[in-house]
Design goal:
The chain is built from 6 helices and 24 strands. It has 455 residues and is mainly beta. The chain has 2 domains: 171 residues, Sandwich (Jelly Rolls); 221 residues, Extracellular Endonuclease, subunit A (Extracellular Endonuclease, Chain A), CATH 3.40.570.10.
Length: 455
């Protein structure tokens, strides 16, 4: 009897404890416990890219998620700062990053990225929580020591089903500096910006047709249609425009079934699947142009196999993209799409370009390439259709389906902005492009969801 009681108490203690852990870098998506209905808290992830603070004394910053207090910390944007976008929190000595607001319906989990400032040595930090608006604090899990000069992931299971806030503390007291970035708070409440996962009888994500929602421009694999040439690959499908030297649009399906731990291949190369007499854009066509070779279908969406990841580096999947646009606002949106799949959803994505002329590091440019045969787009647009993991996806799209559409200027100046500032309706993108999106969805349902702007 005594042994059973001792065992019961030990198990109860383990189950009730909060654990902070280090997650090795990987592209394999993590999952929350499926029996607990959790969502990303409103206005998270928080990347801090729009905030400014240049002095280490205590002060506040205002961000899209709310107001934060920085004590012995600044906003770092130097090359030596380890950051996910253009800025990250930089902490030194004994420092604190504290929420000045509560997540009303509790905090189930906290994740964020951390790294050692490039010139320094290791730093130690902890996560603390408060359920009384910052009057008192409690430590969550274990102390983590940052040793790498590149970003790593930290995860803390908090399990507070009441109004709460967080504080990240650098505790080693040394002059070594620590970067913190991209904080994600999971909550139990309704203020989430992601839909509630519903399995509809299937809990195992699958790979589905990249053109399941339709062919927006009725592209055809026929050389007579050189400005609307259909190319179907394992990783995605696209409409290629010979005259522009880029895709009109790229369409793909995303679920955790497409993802793994394959390393980014970085083998940008011409697409030899183009018709024989067509010019094949090369990586060097982008050299010294002031624009990135911007992926439409991202490398990180196709990392289950080497072959699929390599397909994302065909130059037919690239568009001249302003560097700050590509590496910040566009990247943040891509990460949000993958986050949706971690929450029990699958998404269908169509991305493309509009117009001519963008502003990169060399200013406003209309054409690039050795023969100026690549059009620099004026805008990059994207449509994201979110459905819970299940089967017969097109039939399950209804009037309540979450759809996100954005149209973002191809300019360096927008890099630090939130992609949420550029949300539009699908109807607006159809007006601008002349395409018919979601053509495989019921016309009645299209009439409702295509006119709605995501909130």
């Amino acid at each position: 009897m005594l042994k059973k009681l001792t065992l019961f108490l030990l198990v109860s203690l383990l189950l009730s404890s909060c654990v902070g852990v280090y997650i090795p870098p990987t592209n394999t998506p993590s999952r929350t416990t499926p029996s607990v209905q959790t969502k990303v808290a409103a206005n998270f992830p928080e990347g801090f890219d729009g905030a400014s603070k240049s002095r280490y004394e205590v002060g506040n910053i205002s961000t899209s998620s709310g107001q934060w207090t920085l004590d012995n910390a600044i906003m770092g944007s130097a090359d030596n700062d380890q950051k996910d976008g253009v800025k990250a929190i930089r902490m030194k000595e004994t420092a604190k990053l504290s929420m000045k607001f509560d997540v009303p319906s509790g905090i189930q989990q906290v994740r964020f990225k951390y790294g050692v400032y490039q010139l320094d040595k290791e730093s130690s930090f902890e996560l603390w929580t408060s359920t009384n608006s910052g009057t008192s604090w409690n430590k969550v899990g274990s102390t983590i020591t940052a040793t790498e000069k590149s970003l790593r992931d930290a995860l803390f299971n908090v399990n507070l089903q009441q109004s709460a806030r967080i504080e990240i503390r650098k505790i080693d007291g040394t002059a070594n500096r620590l970067n913190i970035d991209n904080i994600i708070v999971m909550t139990y409440g309704l203020e989430s910006s992601t839909p509630t996962p519903v399995t509809n009888g299937s809990t195992k994500p699958t790979r589905d047709d990249n053109l399941a929602l339709g062919n927006p421009s009725n592209a055809i694999t026929n050389t007579s249609y050189s400005d609307n040439y259909l190319m179907v690959k394992n990783a995605y499908s696209l409409s290629y425009n010979k005259n522009k030297g880029t895709a009109n649009w790229v369409s793909w399906h995303l679920s955790t079934a497409w993802q793994g731990d394959t390393q980014r291949q970085n083998d940008f190369r011409p697409d030899d699947n183009l018709p024989q007499n067509w010019y094949q854009v090369t990586p060097s066509d982008y050299s010294r142009s002031g624009f990135d070779r911007g992926h439409l279908c991202p490398s990180s969406d196709r990392d289950a196999t080497i072959e699929e990841n390599q397909e994302t580096f065909f130059m037919t999947n690239m568009t001249p993209q302003a560097p700050e646009h590509n590496q910040n606002i566009w990247k943040n949106l891509e990460e949000y799409e993958r986050l949706l799949t971690e929450q029990g959803n699958e998404v269908y994505i169509i991305a493309g370009t509009i117009g001519e002329g963008g502003s990169g590091t060399t200013g406003f440019v209309k054409k690039i390439g050795k023969n100026e045969n690549i059009t620099v787009p004026a805008f990059l647009w994207k449509i994201i259709v979110v459905v819970p993991v299940g089967q017969n996806d097109v039939q399950r799209i209804n009037e309540n389906t979450k759809i996100i559409a954005v149209n973002i200027p191809n300019e360096n100046s927008v890099g630090s902005n939130s992609w949420k500032n550029y949300r539009v309706s699908v109807d607006e993108l159809e007006r601008l492009t002349g395409y018919d999106f979601l053509s495989n969805v019921s016309v009645d349902i299209q009439g409702v969801i295509e006119g709605r702007i995501d909130q």
